[in-house]
Structure of Class I SAM-dependent methyltransferase:
Amino acid sequence: MQDQAATPDAFWEEFYQTKRTTSTGQPSKTLARFATDLPPGTALDLGSSHGDDVIWLASLGWQALGVDISPVAVGRAARRAEEQDLSDRARFEARDLSVDFPAGQFDLVTAFYFQSPVHLPRAEIVGRAARAVAPGGHLLVVAHGAPPPWANHSQSEPFPTVESELAAAGYNPTDWTVVEAKLVDRPAKTPSGDQVTLQDTIIILRRNSAG
Ligand SMILES: C[S@@+](CC[C@H](N)C(=O)[O-])C[C@H]1O[C@@H](n2cnc3c(N)ncnc32)[C@H](O)[C@@H]1O
């Protein structure tokens, strides 16, 4: 079992110091599929980890901000942006989004697997994220729809469904257009190398200009 008593900042700092120390350098598949043809604007990524998605957006001309609770992850992301000469467009901030959400509105707000085995008021933060989307902009949220079969931990909230994601975002058809809202299979490998199928929820909403 994970240490359910760990505070979120201590849990994630330890995670990045000891467990996740590298990244693929590749953007999330759903982001690459959806955003490649979007006109660049301003973007915010929640739980930005080592910054792959923010750096990819910046390489396409976006002004992108990544926020993560782990200063170690944020430091690595900022260094990688600098190495790629993208630090003028890829910025990173260490914040606990449950208490401190960036001000302003963004043309694209993303969250990829923004989930946690320790305290995370995720639905509340997804709602806050939706309110940070500028008119005509998009909210893109991808989440584990179920725990991986090999995992022995829970997370602080139930695994999301498409319906619960739309509800968390405050979806209503007057203010939003649904671009995608679905449960998809994702092939993956277990830590011992066996092939399995995981399930992800994906919601992509566009804020109506008059909304
Ligand atoms: C499961 S990881 C996903 C990381 C990355 N988006 C990805 O797709 O690989 C969840 C991320 O959310 C961050 N996180 C967890 N709780 C947070 C909070 N309250 N505020 C900001 N970031 C948080 C963690 O540090 C971690 O980087």
The mean pLDDT is 93. DSSP finds six helices and seven strands in the chain.
